[in-house]
Each structure stands twice: as C-alpha cells, then as structure tokens.
Amino acid sequence: MWEIYDALIEGIPADITADKIVCGSWMSIVVNRYGAGVSTVMPVETRLPLFSGNLIGKPLRQVAELVKSWNLPEASIGHAAINSFYNNPVIARSNGVIFSDSRHTEDRLNDPFITSQNAVKGKKVAVMGHFPYLETFFEPICELSIIDWEPIEEGDFPFAACEYILPQSDYVYISSRSMVDKTFPRLLELSKNAEHVVLVGPTTTLSPYLLQAGINDLSGFIIKDAEKAFNVVAGVFNSTVYSTGQKVSFKKTE
C-alpha cells in the first residue's frame, strides 16, 4: 500500500533541504530552494509523531517520509514536503505542467468541475469531499453522489459508501486530502473501472507518476509567491493561499 508514497518520496533529490516549515490549524507549508508546497492538516493526533526534533534544514526527502505517519498533522508536513518539490514552478514546468507567468490568472479555466460539465452529462459521478458549488455544477446534468469524511450537508453519503459507489461510477473526483490520511490508494483502486479519475484540490501532488498510477487529471495548485504563501499559512497575512499562485490541470496524455 506504500508504493505510491515511496515512489513520490524517491523522486525527490537527496541534496534539497527543507528551509522553512509551518504547520497551521488548517494547512501546512514547506519551503525549499525551488519553492513551496502545502497540504491539508487533519486534526488526528491519537498516535505519537515519528520525529520529535527540529525538521528545518533536514533533507527534504527525510521530511517527506513523514507522510507515512499516523499522526496526521505530522503526515501533513510530509505531504507538504512532497508538494514543495513537485508543485514548485521550476520542477512542475520541467515535468510538463502548463501555467502562466502572470501573477493574476483566471482560475475558472482550470477548475475541474467547471471544465468537465459537458463530459459528465448523463454519467454517474462520484465526488470524494464536498467541494463548493458542486450541486450547482453537476446535479442538473448527471447522477451525482457526494461522499465525505464527515458528512454534514443534506444528501451527502458517509465515507464507507465509497466502497459501493466508486466501482459503479463513470467519473470520480478524489480530494487531495486523501493523501494525508492514507485513504488515497484504496480510493484509487475502487475507481479503476471509471472512465475518468481526477485528484483535486490545492494540495494535489503534480507528479507524472500519479498519471501513470491511474489518475487522468491532476487538478492542483502552483505557488508562485512562496514567501507570501508561507506568511498566509503562518497567519501573518489575512488572505488565502489561492492569492499566491494559480490553479493548474496536469492531464494524462494518450
């Protein structure tokens, strides 16, 4: 079950260090010499952390290993370390991710729910995670099932329903938070019969390996201003991380 995580970790060069790290209440961020990456913080700390020392200055690959921790805030730091490599502008562009150099771009052009409205017409669509405006985009045109880890919206399915719904779905959208709690490999396996599988969210890892592993579209985020993003996550700036970069779509090519 660790194959995906191991492949992402092994792809990080050994000579890169984690220069700055913050784990906030809702998001963590790791900065290296190329740029920054973020991850979702899930407040589950029933297990002790794997590492108790200072992570700043440690090899990025070593910090990335923490994604395997069952202390989920610590796992978030590990995932952010992975993303700080694959999602920074230099490495992402070298891997084939297309994005603008402009500071301000139109995110709607790379929003996976907006851009796939025609494709999902009449299809069975499953979304892991209750994203904003899902019902507006999809409910009138497809058979929509929204599955959430902690369902609070009327009509949402509990997480266990993924075992039954995903294998019957044509289109599957998986929240990138699944990388932190380690549900991603199972969700991907359950989606193997789908026509199209999307990993979606600002913490989606933009690695070509994931496109080979069964994902058709990596709908993620490139941080262009690492310093501002760090200050946003640290609570210095009253803003959102979306103000520091651009949504991108990294698709599998046939």
From TrEMBL:
It comes from Oxobacter pfennigii. Residues 113-235 form the Putative heavy-metal chelation domain. Residues 5-85 form the DUF4213 domain. Coiled coil: none annotated. This is Heavy-metal chelation domain-containing protein. Gene3D superfamilies: 3.30.390.100, 3.40.50.11590. InterPro entries: DUF364, DUF4213.
